[in-house]
Amino acid sequence: MGKLHLEVVTPEKVMVSQEVDIVVAPGTMGEFGVLEGHVPFLSGIEPGELRFASGNQTERFLVTTGFSEVFDNKVSVLVDAAEKTTEIDLERARKAMERARERLAKDRGGEDIDFLRAEAALKRAMVRIRISEKIN
Ligand code: ATP
């Protein structure tokens, strides 16, 4: 059925490696979709929902930050973290958001690494919360 090969890889493991018909991913320039025959393409990935379908089966993952390459009907998504959207722990994300907000409140407007890390953590947490609340 599937005409594309999708791989979603984190530093810990290969989360997805399968044939699919379509992939929709959260690119840094906006969401993009990939079907068979897509031209070679490179994009950053930002925290958001990655969807893919094979036949009538759709799967959804939360992905964080990384990049994606489309080449020769293969879609590679390399990200810091990924989990199935149904496996998002809402309480954990709320706590992560709270921690990030506290850090940002203490260090308002700084451009140091801790500030940027807290901003990135806040973004991950907010996206997890938004997706988890949408599906529950
Ligand atoms: P935390 O501070 O709660 O660890 P984080 O944003 O720093 O959040 P990540 O670095 O994005 O976490 O992810 C680390 C690992 O934990 C990954 O395997 C990721 O899939 C998983 N993970 C993080 N937050 C959640 C969550 N709310 N629900 C389910 N899995 C999560």
UniProtKB/TrEMBL annotation:
CC annotations in GO: plasma membrane; proton-transporting ATP synthase complex
Lineage of origin: Bacteria, Deltaproteobacteria, Candidatus Desulfacyla
Gene Ontology molecular-function annotations: ATP binding; proton-transporting ATP synthase activity, rotational mechanism
Name of the gene: atpC
Subunit structure: F-type ATPases have 2 components, CF(1) - the catalytic core - and CF(0) - the membrane proton channel. CF(1) has five subunits: alpha(3), beta(3), gamma(1), delta(1), epsilon(1). CF(0) has three main subunits: a, b and c.
This protein's name: ATP synthase epsilon chain
Physiological role: Produces ATP from ADP in the presence of a proton gradient across the membrane.
Start and end residues of each ATP synthase epsilon subunit C-terminal domain: 87-133
Membrane-related topology note: Peripheral membrane protein
Entry similarity comment: Belongs to the ATPase epsilon chain family.
Record keywords, A-Z: ATP synthesis, Cell membrane, CF(1), Hydrogen ion transport, Ion transport, Membrane, Transport
Coiled coil: none
Localisation per UniProt entry: Cell membrane
UniProt xrefs under Gene3D superfamilies: ATP synthase delta/epsilon subunit, C-terminal domain, F0F1 ATP synthase delta/epsilon subunit, N-terminal
Segments passing through the bilayer: none
